[in-house]
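Need a sequence for this fold. Nothing fancy.
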């Protein structure tokens, strides 16, 4: 059985495996292949998180859970003993704010965590208010891949402020591999060194991501020491 070179956990809480819902797996066959390879790396549970993005990916419980059942059944027929669940990755946009204001139940990880992402072009001006409203509604906000927002690379204090306000951070393992470039890799390392990271995720969309995950991380022993006792994936 293959193992990752950076074994923080056996549970993944960010991926795009449900077929045909977003920019992830296109077919059931591709989704099964990706899940099987993650299992071979040592993962025992996958919480996959399709995008919910106004005007692009119109997902909700009615699209996500039937696709989840389809993939579960396919993995069972394939004989892959892996636990599979689903939530969502919400873009922090006007639509997400409307869901919050209307008290529409959000799709959660572990019953309380909600995975959100910022746009890659600019930070939402009212993100602090949105995070506060999420907390007031009883959710635990988790910001996906904070290291990938280039407009925040020179502002680590912003993430310290978020952390102090109860916002959790999820770093992509691919970022630590250098998959997205050296600036993103450095930003991910810095967040780890600051002790601000609570979750990691594969963010697998396709085979290229799997291939990158199978590569060896630089200075893996140091990274493991930096994250010792901080990562909460095993609690999900």
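Here you go.
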């Amino acid at each position: 059985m293959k193992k990752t070179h950076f074994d923080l956990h056996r549970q993944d809480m960010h991926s795009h495996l449900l077929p045909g819902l977003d920019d992830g797996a296109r077919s059931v066959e591709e989704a099964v292949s990706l899940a099987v390879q993650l299992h071979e790396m040592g993962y025992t549970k996958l919480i996959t998180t399709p995008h919910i993005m106004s005007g692009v990916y119109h997902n909700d419980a009615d699209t996500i859970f039937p696709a989840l059942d389809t993939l579960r059944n396919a993995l069972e027929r394939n004989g892959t003993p892996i636990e599979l669940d689903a939530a969502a990755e919400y873009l922090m946009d006007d639509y997400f704010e409307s869901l919050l204001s209307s008290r529409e139940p959000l799709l959660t990880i572990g019953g309380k965590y909600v995975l959100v992402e910022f746009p890659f072009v600019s930070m939402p001006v009212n993100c602090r208010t949105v995070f506060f409203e999420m907390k007031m509604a009883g959710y635990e906000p988790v910001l996906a891949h904070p290291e990938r927002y280039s407009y925040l690379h020179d502002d680590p204090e912003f993430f310290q402020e978020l952390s102090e306000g109860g916002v959790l951070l999820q770093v992509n393992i691919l970022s630590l591999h250098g998959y997205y470039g050296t600036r993103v890799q450095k930003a991910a390392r810095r967040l780890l060194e600051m002790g601000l990271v609570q979750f990691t995720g594969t963010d697998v969309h396709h085979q290229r991501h799997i291939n990158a995950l199978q590569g060896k991380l630089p200075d893996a022993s140091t990274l493991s020491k930096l994250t010792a006792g901080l990562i909460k994936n095993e609690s999900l």
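For context: The radius of gyration is 17 Å.
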